[in-house]
Amino acid sequence: MNAIQIKKEFNAPVAQVFELMSKHATYNTAFAPLQVKRVKDSADPERPDGVGSVRRMGFGPIKPLQEQITVLEPNQRIEYKIIKNPLVKHHLGVIEFEPVAEDKTLVTYRIELQARAPFVSKLILAQLKTAIKIGLSKLAKSV
Q1: pLDDT tens for each residue of 22-79
Q2: Which of 28, 75, 90, 143 could form a disulfide with 12 if both were Cys (CB 3.0 to 4.6 A apart)?
Q3: Which CATH number covers residue 14?
Protein backbone atom coordinates (compact mmCIF):
# COMPACT_ATOMS: atom_id res chain seq x y z
CA MET A 1 0.00 0.00 0.00
CA ASN A 2 1.37 3.42 -0.95
CA ALA A 3 1.19 6.07 1.77
CA ILE A 4 2.43 9.50 2.79
CA GLN A 5 2.77 11.17 6.17
CA ILE A 6 3.11 14.86 6.96
CA LYS A 7 3.69 16.36 10.41
CA LYS A 8 3.09 20.00 11.31
CA GLU A 9 3.27 21.80 14.63
CA PHE A 10 0.62 24.42 15.41
CA ASN A 11 1.07 27.16 18.03
CA ALA A 12 -2.38 26.57 19.50
CA PRO A 13 -4.01 24.13 21.92
CA VAL A 14 -5.33 20.79 20.63
CA ALA A 15 -8.99 21.77 21.05
CA GLN A 16 -8.54 24.86 18.86
CA VAL A 17 -6.63 23.01 16.12
CA PHE A 18 -9.09 20.11 16.13
CA GLU A 19 -12.07 22.48 15.91
CA LEU A 20 -10.47 24.22 12.92
CA MET A 21 -9.60 21.02 11.06
CA SER A 22 -12.89 19.23 11.78
CA LYS A 23 -14.81 21.73 9.63
CA HIS A 24 -15.08 21.01 5.90
CA ALA A 25 -15.06 24.74 5.07
CA THR A 26 -11.54 25.05 6.54
CA TYR A 27 -10.17 23.11 3.58
CA ASN A 28 -11.24 25.92 1.22
CA THR A 29 -8.53 28.01 2.87
CA ALA A 30 -5.98 25.23 3.20
CA PHE A 31 -6.22 23.92 -0.34
CA ALA A 32 -7.32 26.96 -2.37
CA PRO A 33 -8.08 27.18 -5.24
CA LEU A 34 -9.61 23.72 -4.65
CA GLN A 35 -13.17 24.16 -3.39
CA VAL A 36 -14.72 21.98 -0.71
CA LYS A 37 -18.44 21.81 0.01
CA ARG A 38 -20.38 19.67 2.47
CA VAL A 39 -23.12 17.87 0.55
CA LYS A 40 -24.40 15.59 3.33
CA ASP A 41 -24.63 16.39 7.03
CA SER A 42 -23.73 13.88 9.71
CA ALA A 43 -26.53 12.46 11.85
CA ASP A 44 -25.25 14.57 14.78
CA PRO A 45 -26.91 18.04 14.62
CA GLU A 46 -24.17 19.38 16.94
CA ARG A 47 -21.46 18.39 14.41
CA PRO A 48 -22.80 18.56 10.83
CA ASP A 49 -19.24 17.91 9.56
CA GLY A 50 -18.93 14.78 11.73
CA VAL A 51 -19.17 11.02 11.11
CA GLY A 52 -21.21 10.22 8.02
CA SER A 53 -20.93 13.69 6.51
CA VAL A 54 -19.81 13.89 2.89
CA ARG A 55 -17.82 16.66 1.21
CA ARG A 56 -17.29 17.20 -2.50
CA MET A 57 -14.10 18.73 -3.85
CA GLY A 58 -13.16 20.28 -7.15
CA PHE A 59 -13.29 23.56 -9.04
CA GLY A 60 -16.39 25.64 -9.71
CA PRO A 61 -19.39 23.48 -10.51
CA ILE A 62 -17.17 20.43 -11.18
CA LYS A 63 -16.50 18.63 -7.90
CA PRO A 64 -15.87 14.96 -8.76
CA LEU A 65 -14.16 13.89 -5.52
CA GLN A 66 -16.33 12.81 -2.61
CA GLU A 67 -14.97 12.12 0.87
CA GLN A 68 -16.91 10.71 3.79
CA ILE A 69 -15.93 11.18 7.45
CA THR A 70 -15.73 7.72 9.05
CA VAL A 71 -14.15 8.48 12.45
CA LEU A 72 -14.22 11.63 14.53
CA GLU A 73 -12.72 11.44 18.02
CA PRO A 74 -12.70 15.00 19.43
CA ASN A 75 -9.22 16.43 19.95
CA GLN A 76 -7.63 13.14 18.85
CA ARG A 77 -8.43 11.83 15.39
CA ILE A 78 -10.34 12.33 12.13
CA GLU A 79 -10.56 9.64 9.43
CA TYR A 80 -12.15 9.86 6.02
CA LYS A 81 -12.34 7.83 2.83
CA ILE A 82 -12.98 8.63 -0.81
CA ILE A 83 -16.31 7.26 -1.98
CA LYS A 84 -17.77 6.69 -5.44
CA ASN A 85 -14.54 7.12 -7.39
CA PRO A 86 -13.89 4.64 -10.20
CA LEU A 87 -10.17 5.59 -10.35
CA VAL A 88 -9.42 4.85 -6.69
CA LYS A 89 -9.51 1.38 -5.18
CA HIS A 90 -8.56 2.49 -1.65
CA HIS A 91 -8.07 5.91 -0.04
CA LEU A 92 -7.90 6.49 3.70
CA GLY A 93 -7.02 9.82 5.27
CA VAL A 94 -6.10 9.98 8.95
CA ILE A 95 -5.46 13.21 10.85
CA GLU A 96 -4.18 12.85 14.41
CA PHE A 97 -3.80 15.59 17.02
CA GLU A 98 -1.24 15.39 19.81
CA PRO A 99 -0.55 18.01 22.46
CA VAL A 100 3.17 18.76 22.74
CA ALA A 101 2.64 21.64 25.21
CA GLU A 102 -0.34 23.53 26.57
CA ASP A 103 -0.34 25.85 23.55
CA LYS A 104 1.26 23.58 20.92
CA THR A 105 -0.25 20.76 18.89
CA LEU A 106 1.40 18.26 16.57
CA VAL A 107 -0.81 17.32 13.63
CA THR A 108 0.06 14.11 11.80
CA TYR A 109 -1.72 13.69 8.46
CA ARG A 110 -1.47 10.29 6.73
CA ILE A 111 -2.97 9.12 3.49
CA GLU A 112 -3.05 5.58 2.14
CA LEU A 113 -3.90 5.31 -1.53
CA GLN A 114 -4.27 2.59 -4.09
CA ALA A 115 -5.39 3.70 -7.54
CA ARG A 116 -6.92 1.22 -9.97
CA ALA A 117 -4.35 2.04 -12.67
CA PRO A 118 -0.81 0.84 -11.91
CA PHE A 119 1.88 3.40 -11.02
CA VAL A 120 -0.67 6.20 -10.60
CA SER A 121 -0.78 6.00 -6.79
CA LYS A 122 2.75 7.34 -6.29
CA LEU A 123 2.11 10.29 -8.63
CA ILE A 124 -1.11 11.23 -6.86
CA LEU A 125 0.50 10.88 -3.43
CA ALA A 126 3.44 13.08 -4.42
CA GLN A 127 1.02 15.83 -5.46
CA LEU A 128 -1.06 15.38 -2.30
CA LYS A 129 2.03 15.56 -0.09
CA THR A 130 3.02 18.92 -1.56
CA ALA A 131 -0.53 20.30 -1.32
CA ILE A 132 -0.98 19.11 2.28
CA LYS A 133 2.36 20.58 3.40
CA ILE A 134 1.35 23.96 1.95
CA GLY A 135 -2.18 23.67 3.32
CA LEU A 136 -1.09 22.78 6.85
CA SER A 137 1.39 25.67 6.83
CA LYS A 138 -1.42 28.07 5.85
CA LEU A 139 -3.65 26.73 8.64
CA ALA A 140 -0.85 26.87 11.22
CA LYS A 141 -0.40 30.59 10.44
CA SER A 142 -4.13 31.20 10.84
CA VAL A 143 -4.32 30.16 14.51
Answers
A1: 999 999 989 988 999 999 999 999 999 999 999 999 998 888 899 999 999 999 999 9
A2: 143
A3: 3.30.530.20
